[in-house]
Amino acid sequence: VGGDKLIRNRIPDVVIQRLITYLRILRDPAMVNEEYISSAQLAHFAGVNSAQVRKDLALFGEFGKQGVGYPVKNLQEELVSILGADRPIGIVIFGVGELGSALARFLTARRKENKEYRFILRALFDENPSMIGKEINGVKVRPLSALDRVEEPQDVGIGIVAVPAAAAQQVVDFAISKGIRGFVNFAPIKLKVPPNVRVQYTDVTLTLEELAFYL
Amino acid sequence: VGGDKLIRNRIPDVVIQRLITYLRILRDPAMVNEEYISSAQLAHFAGVNSAQVRKDLALFGEFGKQGVGYPVKNLQEELVSILGADRPIGIVIFGVGELGSALARFLTARRKENKEYRFILRALFDENPSMIGKEINGVKVRPLSALDRVEEPQDVGIGIVAVPAAAAQQVVDFAISKGIRGFVNFAPIKLKVPPNVRVQYTDVTLTLEELAFYL
Fold first, then answer.
1. pLDDT at site B10
2. B116-156: per-residue pLDDT in tens?
3. Do B46 and A190 touch (CB under 8 A)?
4. Is the pLDDT reported for residue A140 higher than 90?
5. Do B209 and A24 touch (CB under 8 A)?
6. How many alpha carbons fall within 13 Å on the CB side of residue A150?
7. Are B59 and B66 in contact (CB under 8 A)?
8. Which residue of B has its CA nearest to A168?
9. How far is Cα A90 from Cα A118, in angstroms, rounded to an integer?
10. What's the whole-number mean pLDDT along residues A67-87?
């Protein structure tokens, strides 16, 4: 496990992103019945060139078969193992407005249609008294003060931040104090976090606004 | 309008992104009752330094008042005008699975709670016969063949791609042939598009997978 950790920390983020993309391509329903996939096909779907695919996958050993390609099932298993992509990860959502609710429905539905979908919605948090006690697909809305100390990522690995910008930093500070180390931020604000905490930014309205500017 | 276009094309993407972020901060409910905002406050929420804020806003004239800050309402109007952020933009969603449905509910709810929310869901498309004819908040699901020729961005400016990876390129090619010039892609595939078409990539599961890798 120590060695694993070492290898992981040495892989650049951009390679990790591509490996995740390869894995998602292999898991796509259209791929399920394919026995082999060529580096050219993988490259096509991932938007890179075949040499890049071969180079990325060669980092971890010899998967491919000359002239046939990569065995889909085998490559999938290898990528899952490299990425640790079979570990269940608990998710909580902060802010149960329209976006938070939509994400809650999305996550619970993914999990329902695929028992192996590893992101498991554990709880919803909102400070609005009229929301507290409500349920979305069986997951209850609680006040922030009900967030327990987090022990393991499968307990709560990631907090999704879907509160207004003005509340986001405070919510994240509190979540960090409870042990959450990963966040997806939908609030239009840059979060200040210590170096051992990671934040990914994503915002549908912002994305639409950016696109719209160029139309 | 020609001059406007010229100025627009000269502003780097990163500045546009920051201007959009400033505008979203000014529009945040917490800001509504404030008369002034300082460059330090704007910088704090946007995650940049105050000098950057002042430099970005100075590009477009003199908004600030020494020692008081920027007048919130005025700066908001200026940014809306610079960004063209008051033009309504029609949206269609391709793929009405869990993600597509959640996005449809999100967009219609935003529009319902704020009549000025400019992204208007026009139609939903899915090739699954069991989906066709269904409605989400009054917007009907149609087969792809029902997509009409697009004339104006307020008609359909942006297509949201929420179909499986294997179908995404084909759907986008068809949408481009009908005149759509902007896409938000949720499918785990890089799209090939001509230079006059823009794509933004966004993918909640991919974001979660990337974060999870580092937990």
1. 67
2. 889 999 999 999 999 999 999 999 999 999 999 988 888 89
3. yes
4. yes
5. yes
6. 25
7. no
8. B45
9. 8
10. 88
* CB spacing of B45 vs A91 below 8 angstroms: no
| Distance in angstroms (rounded) separating the CA atoms of residues B66 and B69 | 6
Which residue in B has a C-alpha nearest to residue A29's C-alpha?
B164
Tokens of B19: 């201007």
Q: Does B47 sit within 8 Å of A190, measured CB to CB?
A: yes
What CA–CA distance (Å, rounded) separates A191 from A186?
11
Chain A nearest CA to B68, separation (Å):
20
Are A48 and B190 a contacting pair at CB < 8 A?
Answer: yes
Q: Which long-range contacts (CB under 8 A, 24 or more apart) does B11-15 make?
A: B11/B59, B13/A210, B15/B56, B15/B59
Contact call for A208 and B184, based on CB within 8 A: yes
For residue A85, the SS3 value is coil
Which of B29, B102, B208 is nearest residue A105 as measured by Cβ atoms?
Answer: B102
Selection from B19, B39, B23 nearest residue B31 by Cα: B23
User: What's the mean pLDDT in B159-174?
Assistant: 92
Outline where DSSP puts E strands in chain B.
36-37, 70-71, 89-94, 119-125, 135-136, 139-142, 158-161, 182-185, 198-201
Answer yes or no: is the ipTM higher than 0.90: no
Q: Which residue has the tokens 């100025």?
A: B7
pLDDT in tens, A2-33: 344 444 556 777 788 889 889 888 887 777 77
Closest chain A CA to residue B201 = A207
- Position with higher pLDDT, B34 vs B159: B159
To the nearest whole angstrom, how far is the Cα of B69 from the nearest Cα of chain A? Answer: 18
| Tally of CB atoms within 10 A around B69 | 19
Confidence of residue B18 (pLDDT cuts 50, 70, 90): confident
The pTM of this model reads: 0.63
